[in-house]
Amino acid sequence: MTSAVKTRRHYDSQRRRQQAAQTRRDIETAANKLFRERGYVGTSMPAIAKEAAVVVETIYRAFGSKAGLFKAVIEAALAGGSERAEAPPAERPAIRAVIEETDPSRKLELYAATQPGVHGRSSPLYRVLVAAADSDPELRDVLDGLEARRLHGLGGLAAQLAESRALRSNLSVEDARDIIWTLCSTSVHDCLVRERGWASERYRDWLATALKRELLAQGA
Prior knowledge:
globular
């Protein structure tokens, strides 16, 4: 009898966790849609709640604030899903492949290949974030935090190139990091893909070529 009660309690607890995770995903999906359509200021928490078929209090319990919800939404977009966003970037298959690649030229090609998907998923939200950050201190913290983490991660990529003696002799690790950070920015992607109409494949190939040209020593 005791064993049956424990089994039922474990099952009920697991089911509640699954339901909570699904509710969180539903809220993020609804918020993603509305933030893209209406912007940050134009999207209200009641509107998100209605779209997700939950009460507003559920959103606040799960995310703390509207800015907290936006942060979760854009991090999920950058990572390719909520579950991936919960794991360290180095554990994501595409990033792991970049880290483990020993050929500097191929390493940059692999990294460039990740960028069309990242920007395709996140750039509409990033534009919303930039537009609203100056009027919302909490959202400014979200933007600054995202850029700080991106800069840190690209510093790791630059350091790998330096350790393999692949960098041009006139570049420091910090210089290389800043070049990657600039070339792989949302702004550059949007200028070429959104404004000039480049296909994603053309952008990917250009980015790989530009990174190699700007960073690698001859013969690397």
